[in-house]
Amino acid sequence: MENRVEEMRKNLGLNQEAFARAIKVSRQTVSSIENGKYNPSLELAFVIADFFGKSIEEVFIHEKRKE
Amino acid sequence: MENRVEEMRKNLGLNQEAFARAIKVSRQTVSSIENGKYNPSLELAFVIADFFGKSIEEVFIHEKRKE
DNA sequence: TAAAAAAGTAAAGAGTTCTTTACTTTTATA
DNA sequence: TATAAAAGTAAAGAACTCTTTACTTTTTTA
User: Fold this and answer.
1) Do B45 and B56 meet the contact criterion of CB atoms below 8 Å apart?
2) Cα A31 from Cα A36, distance rounded (Å)
3) Best mutation site among A38, A42, A56, A58 for testing chain B: the one with the most B CBs within 10 Å?
4) CATH number for the segment(s) B2-61
């Protein structure tokens, strides 16, 4: 799954540390999500989307693979 | 976090087993999510919402608590 | 280009999501 | 009401999410 977290974070002029503080996770969590190491939990996906004022679908791109 | 999975599943006339098969998880996973034992992963939330033809926000209700 | 700031990464550990197996309880129907 | 179908639940284990600590690499700026 792809996401636009880095792009949206940079649009707000925040570095990973400030963004991590704002959404109350570690900086490593932000880095891991931005780099696609893993997806956030649904809860964290909501927190991130809410922070950006976007829907989850606008931030996280679920490419539905067929077979 | 609340969700409307049970309601939407029943609207389609599916029991937990048929629904679980359709979204490729175990019946226990469906039961656990419907009963709020845990939230689905973001990936599974997308699969469920897609199955219902809804957005994640329409299926999963993230009540943002301000302490 | 040297120093500082920002970001990448790794490993160990805690907690969460999901599976399988199996049994119990509830709900629907003959 | 007896049986069948549907749903609840529990436990052990695998895989994933997130934390802390700590170090390395990349990018920015003085």
Assistant:
1) yes
2) 8
3) A42
4) 1.10.260.40
* A53 interfacial to chain B (CB closer than 8 Å): no
Tokens 């469906």 appear where?
B30
Is residue A49 within 8 A of residue A59, CB to CB? The reply is yes
State whether A64 and B50 contact (CB < 8 Å).
yes
On whether the CB atoms of residues B2 and B39 are closer than 8 A, the answer is no
Residue ranges of the domains in chain A? 2-61
Tokens of A8: 């949206």
Strands A60-61 and B2-3: unpaired
Q: What is the pLDDT of residues B5-24, one digit of tens each?
A: 999 999 999 999 999 999 99
User: For B27-36, what is each residue's pLDDT tens digit?
Assistant: 999 999 999 9
